[in-house]
């Protein structure tokens, strides 16, 4: 073996015979293949040889650079002295303190992520990010992905495709033996062993800029890299690679200083994928992993994953026979009797509150003519998400639920930025590109483009769509009717409906970026890839260009800066129907506020690949309500909604937080109305939560009104958005709604408040299932009482009690008359999470009593004192009425 090959062997193996013999023996028992492929692939030697040649030249160029004094301004305003092309962020971190430097994952130089060991070149501002920072975590997991790639190359001799970080770890795609070999779980231990060795070696992440020609030479063995290089890197330009140990990969970085920063590493799972997400391309193997800078964090994460798996509503729903899904109606839950009990209880609880709070419930049609949807604006903007059909030559659509929570962002050298954060007059541009060479954002104006300005919830419209004018490498355009113009293989543009593009899994597609990655491009050609890359709510809007990327997708950024991936019911399909009701006759100011509620069935034409349990469905019901009021009544009505919200969330045991989003740059209505409305919302929030206890998102409101978003936290501290409160100045205008004013001589336009507390009943049921872990509180439980007679002799007594409980007091009670033993009957009842198991025998029948086993008091599962039936009934009635979360009688 040559010298370079010897280096590869030393870097990747480090035999340490005595120390590692037991581990390697264990691995050989778990996996049929050796720990390291023998011999190692020839491309490792050739790749390292070229890298070292070019790195030596690069180091010589840096050494020859003129060294000048530079000033380094830290985040706290202090200034450090340094020397250009010598002083690195690592040097500055070490000057602050060794322990401080060890905790830092990455640095930011002039707002741009920068490798800690990389020398600074000029006067800069400098800050450091640790693992707790979202960008620091993304870099940490990106570097960990490279360690995983190294392990896979050493173990399989595979050809790597790409390996980005994700929201909860990282993965690497690869082809093994031209797609003839597959990853299996028995390999995980081997991959972890190799990764552990690489981590102990503290392999440096070395950055090197290379020309396109040299890159094609280095990766000539790998057709996937060759395609990336050929398609993404313009001729005559360059990009970077990073090396750690024997791995050298095409990557813009940056990375952690060395692999030793990784203290815990684990391979989690594997799956298959398609290169570029296209089913017509090669099938690849995907391996997922997770890593942390502290072993305690790994232990906690694995425990979290285990707990989350045990709480999965799909698992519990199946075990408790609550609901199921059928291929004959994908995305539409079939509610079984016990699940229906939960569903109805949630709805009836809200109905009870509605009656107390002056809401009037209505029932509106499931389908309307497209004339209605055109008036409301749904048809122009959301028809692809609606189920539509023709009746007597007229087109109708089922009531949809629409989410206006898209935010448009562009990736810059300072990370992802919302367009509202970028200094430019967005209304005058078609598209924006980021040029990494000039480190600037460029805007172009051309009448042939139209894109979704989702930050303001409007389309940026232009006179025509003359696609022939495009010469900027744009590969996808979105028109106002949601059709897409797609450029296939650099050829002519053609118009393809968005839905058709995904469902047919065409050769062309569009690109998305993992928000935590640094210029990591992911193709989403097929509907199946959407879920694999990340939950984009079934739709991704983006425009790609040769040097940068603009992307918009449905996300919501919480107060803590984290992205909450959830549907936001801001504009719900019942609104147009309620507008019709308001307009059905003349209205007077004396009737306002008019609070109207509707549990109508809604539909959303989701892609099949995006469907998931009860959280992503096609058919569902919202606890949808609208309040029509005068501007003066806004504050009082919002306070009333807050009271209802707190009442419901306190019952469920949810912690919640609230955010106010105010007037965007583009809006409808007059500014005085907006200002007054926002002031009232601020006042209501202050009174409800207290000053400083809610978040303000300036300019993030919908174009038709300010909104308040409410996030809830479940038992696992996961945040979800279900409730929303949205002021709407647009729909009353679209439907020309009016009421007779107090003067009786003029009419005025009402303000419309959209509000939902549960969101969809389906999604809330999923959240509650996981929140309670299937241990339903008595008031909501579908299985409240199980009566277990000790022998057939007492079946009649058990049935008598069941009739009293069910028929007279409307509890949910069952009797176990199976042939199982008494202990097995009790155990079966416990597994099905009955709140109470009543054991009945001779003593109980004689004294008209029961012997109680309480689900939530394990220490009292044996023989307990008998309790009278009348006393138990009163205790259970009180428990149900109070809607307590505990299970104490």
UniProtKB/TrEMBL annotation:
UniProt feature, compositional bias: Basic and acidic residues: 1-18
GO-annotated cellular components: mitochondrial matrix
Pfam family, any one: tRNA-synt_2b
Quaternary structure note: Homodimer.
Catalytic activity: tRNA(Thr) + L-threonine + ATP = L-threonyl-tRNA(Thr) + AMP + diphosphate + H(+)
One example GO MF annotation: threonine-tRNA ligase activity
CDD domains: TGS_ThrRS, ThrRS_core
Domain of life: Eukaryota
NCBIfam families in the record: thrS (TIGR00418)
InterPro entries: aa-tRNA-synt_IIb (IPR002314), aa-tRNA-synth_II (IPR006195), aa-tRNA-synth_II/BPL/LPL (IPR045864), Anticodon-bd (IPR004154), Anticodon-bd_dom_sf (IPR036621), Beta-grasp_dom_sf (IPR012675), Hint_dom_sf (IPR036844), Intein_N (IPR006141)
Record's subcellular location: Cytoplasm; Mitochondrion matrix
Database matches in PANTHER family: THREONINE--TRNA LIGASE (PTHR11451:SF46), THREONINE-TRNA LIGASE (PTHR11451)
GO BP annotation list: intein-mediated protein splicing; threonyl-tRNA aminoacylation
Domain TGS: 68-130
SUPFAM superfamilies recorded: Class II aaRS ABD-related, Class II aaRS and biotin synthetases, Hedgehog/intein (Hint) domain, TGS-like, ThrRS/AlaRS common domain
Residue ranges of domain Aminoacyl-transfer RNA synthetases class-II family profile in the record: 294-400, 590-777
Record's protein name: threonine--tRNA ligase
Entry keywords, A to Z: Aminoacyl-tRNA synthetase, ATP-binding, Ligase, Mitochondrion, Nucleotide-binding, Phosphoprotein, Protein biosynthesis, Transit peptide
Family: Belongs to the class-II aminoacyl-tRNA synthetase family.
Lineage: Eukaryota, Fungi, Dikarya, Ascomycota, Saccharomycotina
EC numbers on record: 6.1.1.3
Disordered: annotated segments: 1-39
């Amino acid at each position: 073996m040559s010298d370079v090959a010897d280096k590869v062997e030393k870097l990747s193996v480090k035999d340490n015979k005595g120390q590692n013999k037991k581990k390697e023996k264990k691995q050989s028992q778990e996996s049929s293949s050796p720990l390291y492929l023998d011999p190692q692939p020839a491309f490792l030697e050739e790749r390292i040889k070229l890298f070292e040649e070019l790195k030596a030249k690069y180091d010589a160029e840096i050494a020859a650079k003129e060294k000048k004094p530079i000033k380094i301004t830290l985040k706290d305003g202090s200034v450090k002295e340094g020397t250009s092309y010598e002083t690195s962020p690592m040097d500055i971190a070490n000057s602050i303190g060794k322990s401080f430097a060890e905790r830092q994952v990455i640095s930011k130089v002039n707002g741009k992520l920068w490798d800690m060991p990389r020398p600074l070149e000029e006067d800069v501002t400098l800050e450091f990010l640790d693992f707790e920072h979202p960008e620091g975590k993304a870099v940490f997991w990106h570097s960990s992905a490279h360690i995983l790639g190294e392990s896979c190359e050493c173990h399989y001799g595979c050809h790597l495709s790409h390996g980005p970080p994700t929201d909860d770890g990282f993965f690497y795609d690869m082809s093994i033996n031209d797609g003839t070999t597959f990853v299996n779980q028995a390999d995980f231990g081997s991959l972890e062993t190799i990764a552990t060795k690489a981590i102990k070696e503290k392999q440096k992440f070395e950055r090197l800029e290379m020309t396109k020609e040299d890159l094609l030479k280095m990766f000539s063995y790998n057709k996937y890299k060759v395609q990336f290089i050929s398609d993404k890197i313009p001729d005559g330009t360059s990009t970077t690679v990073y090396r750690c140990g024997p791995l050298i990969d095409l990557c813009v970085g940056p990375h952690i200083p060395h692999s030793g920063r990784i203290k815990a590493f684990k391979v989690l799972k594997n799956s298959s994928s398609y290169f570029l997400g296209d089913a017509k391309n090669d099938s690849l193997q995907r391996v997922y992993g997770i890593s942390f800078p502290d072993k305690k964090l790994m232990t906690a994460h694995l425990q979290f994953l285990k707990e989350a798996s045990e709480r999965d509503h799909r698992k519990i729903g199946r075990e408790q026979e609550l609901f199921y899904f059928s291929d004959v109606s994908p995305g539409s839950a079939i509610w079984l009797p016990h699940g229906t009990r939960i569903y109805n209880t949630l709805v009836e609880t809200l109905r009870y509150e509605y009656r107390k709070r002056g809401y009037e419930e209505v029932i509106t049609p499931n389908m309307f003519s497209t004339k209605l949807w055109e008036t409301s604006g749904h048809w122009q903007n959301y028809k692809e998400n609606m189920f539509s059909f023709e009746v007597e030559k007229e087109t109708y659509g089922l009531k949809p639920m629409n989410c206006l929570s898209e935010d448009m962002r562009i990736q810059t050298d300072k990370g992802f930025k919302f367009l509202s954060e970028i200094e430019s007059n967005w209304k005058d541009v078609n598209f924006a590109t980021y040029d990494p060479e000039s480190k600037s954002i460029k805007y172009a104006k051309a009448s042939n483009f139209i894109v979704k300005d989702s930050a303001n919830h409007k389309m940026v419209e232009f006179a025509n769509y003359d696609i022939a004018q495009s010469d900027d490498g744009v590969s996808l355009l979105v028109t106002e009717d949601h059709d897409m113009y797609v450029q296939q293989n650099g050829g002519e543009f053609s118009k393809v409906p968005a839905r058709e593009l995904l469902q047919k899994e065409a050769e062309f597609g569009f690109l998305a970026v993992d928000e935590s990655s640094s210029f990591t491009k992911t193709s989403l050609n097929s509907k199946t890839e959407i879920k694999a890359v990340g939950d984009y709510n079934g739709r991704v809007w983006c425009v790609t260009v040769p040097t940068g990327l603009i992307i918009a997708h449905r996300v919501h950024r919480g107060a803590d800066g984290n992205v909450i991936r959830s549907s936001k019911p801001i504009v719900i399909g019942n609104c147009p129907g309620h507008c019709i009701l308001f307009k059905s006759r003349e209205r007077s100011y004396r009737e306002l506020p008019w609070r109207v509620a509707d549990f109508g069935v809604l539909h959303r034409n989701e892609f099949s690949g995006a469907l998931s349990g009860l959280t992503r469905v096609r058919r569902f019901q919202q606890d949808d309500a609208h309040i029509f009021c005068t501007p003066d009544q806004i504050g009082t009505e919002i306070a009333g909604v807050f009271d209802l919200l707190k009442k419901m969330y306190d019952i469920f045991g949810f912690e919640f937080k609230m955010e106010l989003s105010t007037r965007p740059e583009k809006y409808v209505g007059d500014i005085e109305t907006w200002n007054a409305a926002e002031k009232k919302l601020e006042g209501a929030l202050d009174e409800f939560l207290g000053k400083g206890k809610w978040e303000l998102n300036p300019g993030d409101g919908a174009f038709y009104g300010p909104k308040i978003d409410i996030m809830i936290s479940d038992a696992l501290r996961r945040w979800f958005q279900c409730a929303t409160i949205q002021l709407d100045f647009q729909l009353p205008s679209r439907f020309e709604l009016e009421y007779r004013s107090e003067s009786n001589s003029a009419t005025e336009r009402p303000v419309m408040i959209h509000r939902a507390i549960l969101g969809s009943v389906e999604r809330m049921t999923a959240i509650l299932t996981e929140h309670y872990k299937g241990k339903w509180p008595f008031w909501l439980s579908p299985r409240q009482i199980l009566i277990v007679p000790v022998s057939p002799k007492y079946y009649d007594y058990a049935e008598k009690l069941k009739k009293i409980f069910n028929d007279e007091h409307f509890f949910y009670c069952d009797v176990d008359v199976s042939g199982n033993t008494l202990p097995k009957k009790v155990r079966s009842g416990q597994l099905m999470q009955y709140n109470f198991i009543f054991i009945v025998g001779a003593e109980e029948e004689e004294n008209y009593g029961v012997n109680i086993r309480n689900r939530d008091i394990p220490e009292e599962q044996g023989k307990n004192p008998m309790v009278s039936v009348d006393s138990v009934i009163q205790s259970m009635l009180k428990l149900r009425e109070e809607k307590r979360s505990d299970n104490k009688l």
